[in-house]
Amino acid sequence: MAADGTPYQKERNIKDNEELFVKDMMDIGHHICDPELVKAFVSASGREHDWMLKNSGIKPTTVMINAGMSVPRSHQYKASEVTMFYYNYAKKNGAKILTGVKAEHLLWDNDKQEITGVKVTDKDGNVKNYGSKNGVLLATGGFARSPELLAQYSPGSKNAAAISGLGTTGDGIRMAQEYGADVADVAYVKPTYGFTLNPKHIDDKSSVLYSGALIVNNGGKRFIRENDSYKTIGEVALAQNKAQSFLVFDEQIRLNSLNNDPREKKFMAEKGKTNYGFVGNTIEEVAQKAEIDPKVLRKTVDEYNATAVIWKLHKPVHCFSVRSSMKLNGEIRPQHVPHLKSCR
What we know:
Radius of gyration: 23 Å
Distance between the termini: 18 Å
Largest sheet: 6 strands, mixed
Structural class: alpha+beta
Order of helices and strands: HHHEEHEEEHHEEHEHHEHHEE
Helix content: 25-40%
Mean pLDDT: 86
Strand content: 15-25%
Oligomer: single chain
Number of helices: 11
Number of strands: 11
């Protein structure tokens, strides 16, 4: 959860405020975003985060920098803990939660000229109508698992792996459109970069690119700025040959990434070992293992290092295979090459 001026930032001497948060959001959005909407989002994020801390007792595992952030403000939580807190809070305060029930259509009252309920089908095929005194709030609409809506609104995401909930088939959008509603800004719906090749969970995503890893395609060449939004990277990565890309980083970046985000232990807990890519003592060795031309990768790294702050090489080098998901700083000879993937 992104929030500014939190106690956890202050503990780490991180200076942050709403103005800086808004500026970062506008910059990463190339100033296309509606400034007032961004301000409202930033303000609401802070209030919601404060409320959750006060009422849940949940604490973040770390505070890290993420896409477009000039300071660390991404508070990392266990998703299951946060979900269960909101679930239990809702039930405690009178919410009735129905599972195995699919919302099909909104109900219209001709006399009142308004939406007054929703038509659903349960897991046994029984159709039921639920009425409402105060309208219907649509809090659904994700369509990562709807080929039809993906083709219509985000065709560039069709080859991205889907890790979202099984119900993300766009039901909320369809129901609202039956009564003349529509969606905005769908041109900016993009896949997320940094996932393993066969992701099953949100934690199958590595953030090592924000700790200094270099991103290259299977031709061994960089194709985007590594500090860009993981959404922008995800879209461009899918356009590469065979939709393949790799994160290349050395031992020092591995240590930096572990320090920045403890969840990275899943990918690179032990020096020189990983189940998600390749490891070698030189750029050439790891390139051969990843089936990348060693000369091209060497040239890419050398050219990058010529414009970056020079660091001493820390072996080994890693190369992760990433799905629509490293930047090298200095004299770094990537020894880990993860093969990554973009997800929706």
